[in-house]
């Protein structure tokens, strides 16, 4: 769970997150930029965050345990 925001701190509606690892999963953000992913298998993931008009944010080697993890992202304009 967490948020996807711009540099001003506003949530980015419609941002997408791709989780690639033991399981591949895509999530769309809500209108406030918030997301929640409860059903991922624990393991090491590559997380790609994209939104129209923003540079993609890629984070590799992210360890997601069976417990709740908060990951917040800030995207920069293209």
From TrEMBL:
Lineage in the entry? Bacteria, Pseudomonadati, Planctomycetota, Candidatus Brocadiia, Candidatus Brocadiales
Task: Please note every region of biased composition (Polar residues).
Answer: 23-35
Tell me the InterPro entries matching this sequence. CarboxyPept-like_regulatory
User: What's the protein name?
Assistant: TonB-dependent receptor
Q: Where is this region: Disordered?
A: 1-35
What Pfam families has UniProt attached to this entry? CarboxypepD_reg
């Amino acid at each position: 769970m967490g948020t996807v925001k711009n540099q001003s701190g506003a949530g980015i509606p419609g941002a997408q997150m791709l989780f690639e690892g033991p399981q591949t999963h895509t999530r769309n953000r809500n209108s406030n930029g918030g997301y929640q992913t409860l059903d991922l298998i624990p393991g090491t993931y590559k997380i790609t965050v994209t939104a129209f008009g923003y540079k993609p944010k890629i984070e590799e080697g992210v360890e997601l345990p069976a417990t709740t993890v908060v990951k917040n992202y800030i995207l920069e304009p293209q």
